[in-house]
Amino acid sequence: xxxxDWGYAIHFSARDGKLRKRLLLPDIPPAIMTPHxxxxxxxPATGELLKSYPPATGKEIESALAGAEKAHAGxxxxxxxxxxxxxxxxxxxxxxxxPDYARLMAREMGKPVTQGEAEARKCALACRxxxxxxELFLRNEKHxxxxxxxxxxxxxxxxxLAIMPWNFPFWQFFRxxxxxxxxxxxxLLKHAPSTPQCSLAIHELMLEAGFPHGVVQSIFLxxxxxxxxxxxxxxxxxxxTGSSEAGSKVAAIAGRNLKRMALELGGSDPxxxxxxxxxxxxxxxxxxxxxxxxxxxxxxxxxxxxxxxxLEQFTxxxxxxxxxxxxGDPTDHDTQxxxxxxxxxxxxxxxxxxxxxxxxxxVLATGTVPQGRGFYYPPTVLGNVTPNAPAWKxxxxxxxxxxxxxxxxxxxxxxxxxxSYGLGASIWTENINRARxxxxxxxxxxxxxxxxxxxDPALPFGGTKKSGFGREMARDGMLEFANCKSVWIK
Length: 490
Known about the structure:
With about 500 residues, this protein is α/β, with parallel strands linked by helices. It has helices at about 60-75, 80-95, 100-110, 115-135, 170-185, 195-210, 225-230, 245-255, 280-290, 310-325, 345-360, 390-395, 410-415, 430-440, 475-480, and strands at about 1-5, 10, 20-25, 40-45, 50-55, 140, 150-155, 160-165, 185-190, 215-220, 235-240, 260-265, 270-275, 300-305, 360-365, 380-385, 400-405, 425-430, 445-450, 470, 480-490.
């Protein structure tokens, strides 16, 4: 390796045998290291610092990039059956260790353990679905042309930088990773700074499952160094789950460097209750939809659009369901709502609610939180919500619901689409044909009828508008980071 005077190096590529220029990444001097540059594991139920990790050094980053490039050459050449076997192994580990992973998520980001166990098992489901479907999804597609033989084949493109969030620390990774590993890509995982132990656990899990060293690597990257890594020629794509602001920044870097990308960003999902809906059932599911993961989910229902004719009755049912939610210790199996993941997240939510009230919203109901330490926030229902309120136009990441009346189906569609987001939506009605007429009018990536919005390995997942683009899971997700190659044989 020949080092230049401008922060670059001339590097021999094991991928194609060519000399390439790459950026050199200097270490962050200890003298300017701040706590926010470290990856800090804090128990949100107590505020206690559990562990702290320094960011990766320049040498560690270079080692990870070189390791990923080397691993990819062999990994993509393996028989599909071998890659899917390792995915099956990962699924078995996830199921066996689900209680352990759930306790880790509870300690590190406050997820109630029952939900953490369900998350680990859902990750196993994603691994198995990708393993069982890969042969069909990746089968060559034959086409009739003037050639003697023509077909389309899909091949892995290389190493994908995965920038993952803290709210579903296992699921968000496996939702993307299962499909892309079956295809034959390798992964460099940059997890959220607040969930470093979950990141390390994923790394160890994949090695235990049999994946070769370098195929899946966890690395503690600062945002600055992540931006530099994304520009490196050994990174061929990026996937990010996070805020629209973060997505915009990542997309700008990826675009300048012609890197493939998939972005799953924020949401302000409408939960539409028509006047012929089963109101008790809708209210019960609505509370679950709003409070899943303590309200910290991109696809959690946030705006509850209710036909004015049934608004009073639905509000009565809904406020009872919301305030009955048990808030408490996330390690307690009876807890339904744990603490928010960080102190700054609670502070931001408090400010959004305060501004919403100042704009005219009223608090219809609020729950109780346990006394003592922890970043808890009570389940809350807001009424009289107007378009200028943060509860309408912004994403509230916590157990706060906004009730909005509408006059008819056309008005419901108008309000549902009156947001910069387009991730998911839910419609409740006893008349399925009525809902079918609304399906093409709702601007979203996922639409559920008489069910809360969720992701399923059998269906592609993603959004539109400022909720991002690209898909994860199913065939669309498996081909998201594939080279679609047309072959013509004369």
